[in-house]
């Protein structure tokens, strides 16, 4: 588990409170940008604090030598925090995840060069129903810590009940300073819940339920029902996408089946 996610540093409470206030007040209601729509259910939006254009609405990450955006200039506590970390940044964003929202199982950085990099999460506002899932485990990212994620592992996130979850997302390149930050990383047992493995009977039952929904005309609901299994059971990587593909094959919808094979490839990489 430590290879995939771990806490790396405590954030001083006064600093956290100042950054929380800035995250809730600095971006206006219309500033948040919905991007990567194919990876989510809806409800996930971001603004950029560091990128290569200075425009906070430019949120599709890429390799670059970033500078602060116009939004970060109005967030002095967050600006000072990033300066103190002194990392080799690639991109920095604020991310908001609303209630009953999901980031579906995926890998990040697949479209980028094979350079060692990591994502740091700094939870600013969260709740116990807002979790990250990776490796068949559900992890609640507690505020007051910097969390290191290796997003080349398949993972997803959800916020079931709300309120909105706000995280500072820091994509950075590996260097000596980051290695120093990660040297004492840890994870508490209380933060991790092992998801139960789905039996063959479980999977067959879920497939039948999805088929029944689809036959009644609720195809989108059937797809979402299967996608959400990733947050309920420890499944083989990409299994939810294979179940949806099989669903459409059983409905004799070859175009939809091909589309979901492509979704699997786009979100997880590897062979279709």
TrEMBL record:
Q: Which domain of life is it from?
A: Bacteria
Quote the Pfam families the UniProt record gives.
Asp_Arg_Hydrox
**All copies of domain Aspartyl/asparaginy/proline hydroxylase, residue ranges:** 34-173
- Record-given protein name: Aspartyl/asparaginy/proline hydroxylase domain-containing protein
InterPro entries linked to this entry: Asp/Arg/Pro-Hydrxlase (IPR007803), IPNS-like_sf (IPR027443)
SUPFAM superfamilies recorded? Clavaminate synthase-like
């Amino acid at each position: 588990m430590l290879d995939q996610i771990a806490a790396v540093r405590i954030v001083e409470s006064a600093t956290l409170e100042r950054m929380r206030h800035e995250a809730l007040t600095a971006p206006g209601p219309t500033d948040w940008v919905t991007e990567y729509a194919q990876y989510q259910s809806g409800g996930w939006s971001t603004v950029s604090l560091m990128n290569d254009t200075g425009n906070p609405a430019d949120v599709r990450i890429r390799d670059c030598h970033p500078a602060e955006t116009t939004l970060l200039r109005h967030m002095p506590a967050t600006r000072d925090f990033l300066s103190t970390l002194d990392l080799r940044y690639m991109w920095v964003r604020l991310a908001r995840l609303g209630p009953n929202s999901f980031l579906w199982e995926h890998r990040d950085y697949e479209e980028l060069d094979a350079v060692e990099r990591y994502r740091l999460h700094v939870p600013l506002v969260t709740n116990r129903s807002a979790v990250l899932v990776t490796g068949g485990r559900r992890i609640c990212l507690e505020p007051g810590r910097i969390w290191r994620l290796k997003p080349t592992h398949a993972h997803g996130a959800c916020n079931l009940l709300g309120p909105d979850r706000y995280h500072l997302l820091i994509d950075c390149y590996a260097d000596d300073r980051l290695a120093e930050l990660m040297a004492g990383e840890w994870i508490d047992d209380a933060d991790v819940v092992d998801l139960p493995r789905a039996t063959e009977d479980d999977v067959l039952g879920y497939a039948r339920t999805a088929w029944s929904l689809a036959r009644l005309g609720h195809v989108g609901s059937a797809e979402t029902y299967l996608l959400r299994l990733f947050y309920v059971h420890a499944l083989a990587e990409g299994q939810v996408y294979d179940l949806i593909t099989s669903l459409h094959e059983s409905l004799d919808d070859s175009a939809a089946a091909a589309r979901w094979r492509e979704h699997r490839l786009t979100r997880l990489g590897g062979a279709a």
